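Service request form, structural biology core

Requester: graduate student, group of Dr. S.
Request type: structure prediction, single chain
Budget code: on file
Notes: please return the result as structure tokens.

Sequence provided:
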Amino acid sequence: MSTADETAPDAHEIRSLTVLPAVREDVELHTADGLRLVGELARPVGLDGAPAEPAATLVTLHPLPTHGGYMDSHVLRKAAWRLPALAGLAVLRFNTRGTSSPRGTSEGRFSEGVDERFDVQAAIELAEFSDLPRRWLVGWSFGTELALMHGHDPGVEGAVLLSPPLHRATDADLDAWAAFGRPLVVLVPELDDYLRPDEARRRFARVPQAEVIGVDGAKHLWVGEAAVRRVLDEIVAHVAPAVPVPLPRTWSGPVEEASPEAGAPADGTRTAADA
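Core staff response, request fulfilled:
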């Protein structure tokens, strides 16, 4: 992990396309209904260059694929680029069935969140088989629906929801999570297109262990570095509370810069079709 000395002469400002050191490998997930899904696992780097033991693991679930969501949606991509180095976290990203990205295309077809239950389970199993500790689901928009509907797994410590629309997920799913008993952290943008903080607090009141956090000025897509930093800080504060936040804004050490194409918007949905 980095030092917090932001005055060091070799300190690099962490910008939108900054990629910090990690051990990154392409992975394949295999679902119980016979599909192959593509993904990437990023882990902290040890002193010998091999993967280090992470403090915790993020299993990420991307926004709606029919409206631009995929494993490279910008908040999830920046989590994978930054959090192994800044917070010692492992980050698993993957394309749900029928979803394409530069990494490749996952087999199968979009199923409105129904058959995606196999995708969620395959991701949790891959994290378990990789001996990744303290597994948390991190869902964004459509990904929050998958977490609420299909994330009740004993191998999961909790879930962080970003911009939950609560369209596919029902009160029955909230009740099931309440019975599951694991922590639920809900980040709700003040200016969200689908569910705003006051309504979110009312809906999530069914889950006693849910913490609903309204984020002033934010929108559904978490556009801009200030919004991304707030999301990443909140994730780390809940998943790895021993790591100080806010996270450093600079990095002393080797960095890479992603191509502009890697940072092209593919950040979720902009229409009511996220219902």
